[in-house]
Specification:
Length: 393
């Protein structure tokens, strides 16, 4: 067990992409001596200039003074040499999302860091148990999953593998909490909390579109204006990128042994194949070229309520099933969705508000209409309705 206090921990980050750079910024701003390593010189230079710009902007906005800005930047060592991580207390890996490469890197890291050093992965989709098994001491390995952009998004999912020790969990959590983040504890299962529970937000919206019930603009309007979500599913997928969002869905689907609840959509696949990735390519579900007039929604309240209710009950069902399978506590499931993806309410609290019997009855109606396992209500929901229980009151 480490004996140093949290503030004195030396933090290493491997991978100077968007996530690694964001994590380094947080650590350096929280007074840690920080090391950023990448094999690619260009990535390091880009990270360094991005960090300088961010800190300069904070000075410009009078959030920090110039001396503090210099101190923050001086705390960061940029290097191509992984050996600089040898003195670190926690190393967070944020390299390419590939299990074989991550396993190789973890085994290499273990050979050079201190015995007490925690080795964490920022993976969004890979098994922490599999990464940990590449290390002789797999007890020191954990998942610490930030959301993009890391400095701005408050949520961090902490994922112990079945091999991870209590000490590793406690120290990781204390460190993340000391950075002002909201940490939630989740089981090492596909998609953790957020990327599992959020799937119907995209998948059911795409299915509604494919059935010809409504167009992109109308579905987005329903979810924002009636549902109160900050962004509609198609606007959000265009932000995330259809390539990335499709890959996450496909990974979750295959990791759940092809459970139809997570089935990917041909519409999204074709958009990705066409290179209509979203904002980053200027075209996705919407066309972002200058001067293009955006399609107008059909503001039919009845249709909007139907769309919103259908997506919402599937989201709630996913949250309830995650609770049923002990993926996380009810509080953490609700926090994850409000702080990780800005949902207007926690889904379990929302379920209470709608009435669990109403959620069940809508799911049963969909299940019987489609005859598709995608709509099967969670056993916990059935049980709670039968016993007249609620989540919070
Ligand atoms: P990125 O592609 O922007 O950056 C990865 C960096 O790692 C590159 O600079 C590359 O040169 C470097 N790299 C690759 N192999 C390396 C090695 N063996 N040693 C040292 N450096 C190496 O990737 P991004 O988007 O920053 O993601 C990194 C990780 O974080 C992935 O595991 C991803 O799944 C996860 N993640 C990504 C999120 C996102 O929205 N981009 C959100 C949450 C997690």
């Amino acid at each position: 067990m480490n004996t140093v206090s949290v503030a004195e921990l030396k933090i290493g980050v491997l991978g100077a992409g968007s996530m690694g750079t964001g994590i380094v910024q947080i650590a350096a701003m929280h007074k840690h001596q920080t090391f950023l390593v990448d094999l690619n010189e260009e990535a390091l230079n880009k990270a360094s200039s991005n960090l300088k710009n961010i800190v300069a902007k904070l000075v410009e906005k009078s959030k920090i003074d110039q001396t503090t800005a210099n101190t923050i930047l001086n705390r960061i060592t940029f290097s191509k040499n992984i050996q600089v991580l040898s003195e670190c207390d926690i190393v967070i890996e944020a390299i390419v999302e590939n299990i074989d490469i991550k396993r190789k890197v973890f085994s290499q890291l273990e050979g050079l860091v201190k015995e007490t050093c925690i080795l964490a992965s920022n993976t969004s989709s890979l098994s922490i148990a599999s990464i940990a098994s590449a290390c002789k001491n797999s007890e020191r390995v954990i998942g610490i999953h930030f959301f993009n952009p890391a400095p701005l998004m408050p949520l961090v999912e902490i994922i112990p593998a079945i091999q991870t020790s209590e000490n590793t969990v406690t120290l990781s959590k204390s460190c993340i909490d000391s950075w002002g983040k909201i940490s939630v504890l989740t089981k090492d299962t596909p998609g953790f909390i957020v990327n599992r529970v959020a799937r119907p937000f995209y998948g059911e919206a795409l299915k509604i579109y494919e059935e010809g019930v409504a167009d992109f603009a109308t579905i987005d309007w329903a979810m924002t204006q009636i549902g109160g979500f900050k962004m509609g599913p198609f606007t959000l997928m265009d932000y995330i990128g259809n390539d990335i969002n499709y890959t996450v869905t496909e990974t979750v689907f295959s990791s759940f042994y092809f459970d139809p609840r997570f089935k990917p959509s041909f519409t999204q696949k074709r958009h990705a194949e066409a290179g209509w990735l979203g904002r980053k390519t200027g075209r996705g579900y919407y066309n972002y070229a200058d001067g293009v007039i955006q399609p107008q929604p059909n503001k039919d309240e009845k249709l909007g309520n139907e769309i919103c209710n259908r997506i919402l009950v599937l989201l709630i069902n996913e949250a309830i099933d995650a609770l049923f399978l002990n993926i996380a506590s009810k509080e953490d499931i609700d926090l994850a969705m409000t702080k990780g993806v800005n949902y207007p309410k926690g889904l379990l609290a929302w379920a209470d508000e709608l009435g669990l019997e109403n959620v069940l009855s809508k799911l049963e109606q969909l299940f019987s209409e489609y005859g598709d396992d995608r709509y099967r209500p969670s056993a916990l929901l059935r049980r709670m309705v039968k016993n007249k229980k609620t989540f919070y009151s």
